[in-house]
Amino acid sequence: MSDEVKDAGLVAMISSILGGNKRTDSVALSPIAEVPPIVPADAAEPTSSSDPAAAKAENAPDAAPAATKPVEPPAQIATTRDGKRLLPAEAIADLVLGELRKLEDFPSSGVSVTVYGYRNWNAMLTFAPFSTSFQNATRFRQAIPDLVFKLRRFVELEI
Predict the structure, then answer these.
(1) Dihedral angle computed from the Cα positions of residues 74, 75, 78 and 84, in that order, rounded to the nearest 10 degrees
(2) Is the pTM of this model over 0.70?
(3) For 47-100, what is each residue's pLDDT tens digit?
(4) Is 157 exposed, middle or buried (0-12, 13-18, 19+ CB in 10 A)?
(5) Contact criterion met (CB below 8 Å) for 140 and 100
(6) Among residues 86, 85, 88, 132, which one has the least CA distance to residue 112?
(7) Which residues contact 29 (CB under 8 A, 6 or more apart)?
(8) CA triple 83-22-24, angle to 5 deg
(9) pLDDT (tens digit, 9 = 90+) per residue, 131-156?
C-alpha cells in the first residue's frame, strides 16, 4: 500500500472525527494501473516445454503452488498509551493542510505547513508570494490554533 493511500485514509479518518463532511483532495490516489504487479520468484524463469513430465506437473490441479515471496504483514500503527496515533511531522502537516483545504478560498498551491515542537507540537503556515491575499492569509493563520488543538487530541508527534 502506498504512502499516498495511507495518508488519504488517515486524512479521511481525522476529517470524520473532526466533523468535516467534505472529502479532502490533498492526497490524490494513484490509479491501479501504475502499481507494478507482484511476480512470484519462480515466474521470472521461463519454463521449457521439452520436459512433458514437468509440464503435466505444473498443469495438474493437485500440484503444489509455486513458491512465492512471503507477504509482509501491514505495518502496525504506532500509538501512545493514551490511544493517540504517533505520526511524523510530514504526516501531521498533510493532515493540517488537508483540513485547511476545506476552507473557502484556500489556495491550491503555494502553501507550506511546518510542524514543530514535541509534546505540545504546533503548526506554522507560510504562503508563497501572490498565492493569496493578506486578508485570506490572516484568516487561514487564525484557523490554525483551533485545528491544532483538535488534532492534538488524536495525534502525537513522532520523534
Answers:
(1) -40
(2) no
(3) 444 555 555 555 555 555 555 666 555 566 777 778 888 899 999 999 999 999
(4) buried
(5) yes
(6) 132
(7) 4, 5, 8
(8) 75
(9) 999 999 999 999 999 999 999 999 98
